[in-house]
Amino acid sequence: MSEAIESVLNETRKFPPPSDFAAQANISSEEQYQQMWTRAKEDPAGFWGDMAANLDWFKKWDTVLDGAMPNTKWFVGGKINLSYNCLDRHLLGPNKNKAAIIWEGEPGDTRVLRYQDLHREVCKFANVLKKLGVQTGDRVTLYMPMIPELAIAMLACTRIGAIHSIIFGGFSAEAVADRNNDAQAKLIVTADAGWRRGKEVFLKSAVDASLEKSPSVQKVVVVRRTGSPVEMVPDRDYWWHDLMKDVSAECDPVQLDAEHPLFILYTSGSTGKPKGVLHTTAGYLLGATMTSKWVFDLKDEDTYWCTADIGWVTGHSYVVYGPLANGATTVMYEGAPNWPDEGRFWELIEKYRVSIFYTAPTAIRAFVKWGDDWPNRHDLSSLRLLGTVGEPINPEAWMWYHKIIGQERCPIVDTWWQTETGGIMISPLPGITPTKPGSCTRPLPGVVPDIVTKDGQTVPGTNGGLLVMKQPWPSMLRTLYGDHDRFVQTYFSEIPGAYFAGDGARRDEDGYYWVMGRVDDVLNVAGHRLSTMEVESALVSHPRVAEAAVVGFPHDLKGEGICCFVSLKGLDGDDALKKELIAHVRKQIGALATPDQIRFAAALPKTRSGKIMRRLLRDIAAGREKTQDTTTLEDYNVLAKLRESDE
Length: 647
Ligand code: ATP
Ligand code: MG
Prior knowledge:
The protein is an alpha/beta fold. Among the domains are: 83-254, Rossmann fold (3-Layer(aba) Sandwich), CATH 3.40.50; 522-644, ANL, C-terminal domain (GMP Synthetase, Chain A, domain 3). It is built from 20 helices and 30 strands. The strands form eight sheets. Strands 12-11-8-6-7-14-15-23 form an eight-stranded mixed β-sheet, with helices on both faces. Strands 5-4-17-16-18-19-20 form a seven-stranded mixed β-sheet, with helices on both faces. The radius of gyration is 24 Å and the shape is globular. The structure holds adenosine-5'-triphosphate (ATP) and magnesium ion (MG). Residues 267, 271, 418, 501-502 line the site of magnesium ion.
């Protein structure tokens, strides 16, 4: 089994769900989970057909599942509208005047939109879009700060069947132009600027520059957020508030085919050039709705906060669509976690009595670095459930989250999924799954994963291999926009008969999944294939280490040597600490994984969604000049500084 990934991480801690949580959970018994999972595997059409009763349909489907991977259609013949499911249906009952969105801006300004208010704004903006010539099927780019108008614009697109393409507000004019062109967007919604760490991030000026290179865009709608001056081009640029003044607040939702394209979203770009993932209406909505209920255990009385930017898929599925489809209250925050100080998130949790909190490992590592004092100053007793997504979480970061934020009371759901999967795939169910730090545990109902070798054979035992999906699921991507061949090539050609999107994982003796990082990042040391995540986790378990990124570099004897980029808590490191860290890793996970180089770094290169970009570190470790796409890199200075850092 030459291409298996060997596991050296030895993590044995286990945390059963607290009994009071279990008693009230949406999925509350192991039997219920087993029964759902088996049914979904054996009769996916029957299972998902039943689940679809959680949505409101204008016309019921004729066929639940048509075709096989890669080309599947769900709920064929059904008619549905996403905004109707997130808004209109809640106006019929007691949620009419419930907060749909609680928003806080970075400077501390706040807005609360009740379901009624949100419905009204969405209908008005849908009418604005129509007035500006947007029709069903047209693409609309949203390049905005984290303000309520972003959610309003998304929902307005879905109301009339326009396809939104959201571009994270930190991207450059160049990136906006590329994505506008790829999607052939007709209209773009933006703002003058947004707030980030007390400074304005100018958006309208970037749009102006992008439009020189993306001629498909005919109209620009601008929200006034910071009040900073912008140039308005007559007959092209319009103020949001002017347009909203005299449109009707009534707009019938368009009855769309279940498979009507819903949105395009470009992936984070951790591994290369971003891909324009296309999701469709009913399957995606069903995935977001059910996973929110199962994994976040959403209840009417919850105040739920997912800290992701809506520019990423996590924000699409778990700030906006999943929570709203369930009639929940979702918190939306505009700014940075360390503005005006490192206590901002904990202050918000205390202020809004947040009960469910969902964030990313990159944020958790930053909290660890900033110190326990910040959360300890605040009352976090309202929290009942914690979640994480985006990267493998190092067990020590998990433990910190469990102890300091969850106060050993809250289950943690480590949710594995991708832009392509639309919703959570592998995750604990908080009422029933005993958790293990660093493992995303077991597949949700409807998800049939496996760990295989390159030729598609199941890896025996608990060794690592390629993480694949063997059965289609409703919220999976349908294509890469405008390039169906690339879609088939990227996800379905490497492993016969399965979906594969780049991650390595192993399955332990309890059937739990442990994501070991990206297969492209796997180290090949003296003939042994090792996971970067495991070496990184060993480093992070040292009390001085806040964050680590491990890559291979060409080595005469071993094939690949292990180079560790390490970011410390507190004071600078010295040679003695390097030696200590090498010894620590050796002791934790064995001689095979002994680091050849330790390099201290103030910061690691990350995507704008906060993921470590190991592919760029490989160049640095090997002493190569940059050869790769860096358009999704968060901070170019970090790379320059790392090049200067010596071994
Ligand atoms: P690109 O595909 O352009 O390289 P990306 O894969 O980073 O970008 P996303 O779709 O945002 O884009 O991220 C999905 C990936 O994030 C997964 O394939 C996996 O590598 C990682 N990931 C997400 N959640 C988890 C998790 N809970 N545990 C481990 N890894 C995770
Ligand atoms: Mg990916």
